[in-house]
Amino acid sequence: MDRADGRMDLTMKVEGMTCGGCAAAVTKAIRRLDPEAEVSVDLERGQVAVVTGAQALDIAQALGRAGYDAEAMTG
Ligand SMILES: [Cu+2]
C-alpha cells in the first residue's frame, strides 16, 4: 500500500523467529537497509510489518542473509 509520504506498508512473512533476540536481529537487518524504517515484529504469526522506502525484495534478501527466510505477503 502506498502512503502519502512515499513509503510503503509492507508485511513480510518471516520463518524462524522464536524470541526477542530474533525480533531484534530482524529489526536490525531491516534498519541497516533503511535506518528510518518502522518495524513491528509479530512472533506468533511469524510476520513483520514494515513502513519503509526500501524494496520488499531487498528486505527479504537482507533477512535471508541474517538467517531468516522471508518473503513479502500480499493483501
Ligand atoms: Cu530468537
UniProtKB/TrEMBL annotation:
Transmembrane segments: none annotated. Pfam families: HMA. SUPFAM superfamilies: HMA, heavy metal-associated domain. This is Heavy metal transporter. Keywords: Metal-binding. CDD domains: HMA. Residues 8-71 form the HMA domain.
